[in-house]
Amino acid sequence: MNILVVRAGALGDTLMVTPVVRALGERYPDVSIDVLCSEAARGLVELQPRVKHLFSLKWRNLPYVISPEKRQLVKQLRSRHYDFAVLLERAPRYRELLEKADISEIRSFRESPFDPKAHATENNLRAAGFEGEVSTDMELVVSKDDEQRAEELLGGLGRPVVGVHVGYGPRGKKRDQSQRLKGWALENFVELGEKLVADGANIVLTGSAEDLPQVDELASRVPARVIAGRTSVRELGAVIRQLDLFISVDSGPAHMAAALGTPLVVLWGPAILEQVRPMSSSSPVSVMRHPVPCAPCYDTPLMKTCRRNICMEGITPADVFETARRSLVPPRGWVAE
Predict the structure, then answer these.
(1) 106 and 167: one domain?
(2) What is the CATH number of the domain that holds 272?
(3) Number of domains within the chain
(4) What pLDDT score does 308 carry?
(5) Which residues neighbour 29 within 8 Å (Cβ) at sequence distance 6 or greater?
């Protein structure tokens, strides 16, 4: 029996599919489970023990008729002779791919409508045919090499070690992450960093190479170890797992922290909290938000007209700092070595 799970989204989107893979593996212990994800998120799925074959798309938005990558993918999928596919994308182009691959049974949000009041992981599980008491915990597996790389990057730092993540996703037209919809002002990160350092924390600044302008500016004003742009996505996961606390805007790495059991403080603004907040049953997740009438604005016309993210402006460094201290006591303590 062969099953295909399809979610070609960002990092957090991909992690929220891992409960489906686990549930399928438990229901069908002899099944071969394949996953189609985005190229950017491939590292999050590569080591999943229940995944037999992994396919990925680099140019996921390119139309099929002009995409050699998608035509080759259809050939590969057709050769697997799937019994059914779990389609967790709503764009018609993904159903088109599966139909071209001769997959006759497709379980999706068309058959099990997406409940906007439920979390994405619950909706994903329902679309796959699961109801009731099924774990929604995300999974992220890292290798020994990833762990060794993390130890090299964090070597010599005393406890507690607090990761700070300023960016999220490709910057697009706005080069400064703090000016984007889910961004938090650099001055806020500076103030927060100063409070953390004064209280004995050692700060590690994570991020992509695109985040380096803001990360380097922050590091020039607050003592910190910069590892932004120096890790693969899975090496970043290994780093996050070794942290005592992770503080981030709404981002893929925030979901990685939840999946890895690292205490998390996430700064939340325009996204739909009920649907996509990071969740974990094994570690504390603290969501910092400042409710405003226009939030959440994701999937509404307001998102494209927003010129000032007052939802993020209302989150203060002092409040984040106090939440960070509470998140470390317990389980890991707030005592520098």
Answers:
(1) no
(2) 3.40.50.2000
(3) 2
(4) 87
(5) none
Same domain, 120 and 198: no
Instruction: Give the bridge partners for 288, in sequence order.
Output: 267
Domain limits for position 97: 2-128
Token pair of 219 as six digits: 């590091």
Q: Which residues of 304-319 are buried (b: 16+ CB within 10 A; e: fewer)?
A: eebeebebbeebebee
Question: Which tens digits make up the pLDDT trace of 231-269?
Answer: 999 999 999 999 999 999 999 999 999 999 999 999 999
* Structure token digits, residue 20: 């489906």
Query: pTM of the entire structure?
Result: 0.93
Quote the tokens at residue 47: 């080591």
Structure tokens at 233: 């996505």
Q: Supply φ then ψ for residue 51, to 5 degrees.
A: -90, 120
Neighbouring residues of 99: CB distance < 8 A, sequence distance ≥ 6: 106
Using DSSP, state whether 47 is helix, strand or coil: coil
**How do residues 50-66 score in pLDDT, each as one tens digit?**
999 999 999 999 999 99
In-domain check, residue 137 = no
The amino acid present at 280, given as its one-letter code, is S
